[in-house]
Amino acid sequence: MKHYCIVAVVLLVVMGALMIGPARQDSATVDETTFLGAGYTYWTGHRYYLVPDHSPFGQMLPALPLLAMDVRLSPNAQALLDKRSPYTWAVPWYGPPRAIQELYPQGRNDWYFVATPESQLFGQMFVYDGTNDGDWMMLSGRLVQILLTIGVGLVIFLWLRRATGNELPALFGLALWVFNPHALAYGHLITTDIGGTMGFVGALYTFALFLDKPTGRIAGLCGAATALALLLKYTAALLVPIYLVLAFVYRRNISQSSMRWWKLFLIMIAAFWSTLLVAYFPYWSPALPLPDWQATALGVPKWFQAFRVLLIPRDFFKVIALKLCQSKWGHEGYLFGEWSAHGWWYYFPVVFFLKSPMAFIILSVGSGVVFIKRFKSAPPLELVPWVASVAYLLFAMTSKVNVGVRHFLPVVPLLCIGAGCAFSAVRNSWLKWAAYVLIAWQTVVTLLAYPLYLQFFSEAVGGSQNGYKYLLDSNYDWGQDAKRLKTFLQERGINHVYLNYFGTQYNVEYLKIPNTRVNAEQARQIQEGYLVVSVSELMRPEWTWLRESRQPIARVAHTLFVYQIQ
Questions:
Q1: Residue ranges per domain, the chain?
Q2: What does 43-103 look like in DSSP terms, one character per residue?
Q3: Residues 137-168 pLDDT 10s
């Protein structure tokens, strides 16, 4: 047993090592500075203002190391934080941006205000305007995320050890997580995705334990864990319908417990609500009333207005309301060369296939087949990950926000757990050896992808080189390669570039990359020089002329296309 624990520790250390390199080498992606800046302001007394549409703890955790630093704000950053915004437009709860005077003709109502542009600009200034050591701030926040990713691996190991009573399946499932491009790509970035994954899987584990042995203590633990999951990412709200389905399946276990079932659920609800109240202390007063015309203009949901006085803590329900509105409104996405603001119902199954190693897909499908055969006799610790995975998939397929496989990240550890349970259940030695071969295959593929995990694409579609033909944005090119561009320019002796970069321009200036920012029309006028275009921009219609008329002389980390114009 001790040997197995040592192996588990070694695997987790290897995982951390595989993420340290990208954490140091990747430039800030599009959302990272926003979350880091907002998280810091939450710690320092400006709670829930800058990014009110995301759960707070997922932003606060990576910002925690900054409290030990001598962080300063430039006058421009301080002005944004003091709500002296230069913008003449604003983002409503639902719908496109509108003139701020239309939404707030009598002055801004700060609680109902959604500071999306302000938060983005503040984050860029906070990290990269030269007032602070931006690289060290980013690395510090990313180290916290790496610890959370390792924590997910620990939950996988403990879950499988409890479910199978054997360390070998636990190591099998853990290895699937350690050598998984999804985990390595998003596990080191300052977003709410990995924290949300940790909270989601952790809460499900406590509920599986509750179904196995329903006691008041475990019910309370589950309620608190569910609240923490929601504080890390709002998508944990999906836990509620999952719990109801599972409770129905295992209603006999609950009814046969030493306490009445309704007492157990009251304990769970009380622990859940108490945790939320502590987290949002002292903001317990309901949201202020809003005139009907303004609520309509802002797109505040009718249910929020109707139950406003009961929605405590108010900031918690604001997160839920805003994300539901955004999900309904949609977000521009890219798939197979097409752009859409309303998404595709099949987006997440397709993206998951494209972005996963073939070995992982084969293991997931094979494990699902094994589970189906065992469905009627499966104990809670084996059934829960599969039910949760299917429910999450169905929920994701209804969403109009189709921008990245990262939103599907909680399913990955659940599949690792499901595969570990299947590995334990299989008695055929040939199938065991096939599983070993597949996990070795996945390990090799993942190691060969180092350190460009964000760009990873399945061997089935030709790997990372061809990824842009299928997906963009956070699936491929999210602004992570500015440092690699600087190295490329220095090695080639290129002293200036015309640049269209999908990322934080403050980061480009911080790195002192000599550039002139151009759009597609301005790029047409270039007579001589080097033009660098991020592929997330290059695949837009306005750049068709460049794709059809010229071939790049180089590609930096697959995502930055370099053209020589002469």
A1: 2-142, 201-449, 481-565
A2: HTT-TTSS-TTS-SHHHHHHHGGGGGS-----HHHHHHHTT----SEEB-SSSS-EEHHHH
A3: 999 999 999 999 999 999 999 999 999 999 99
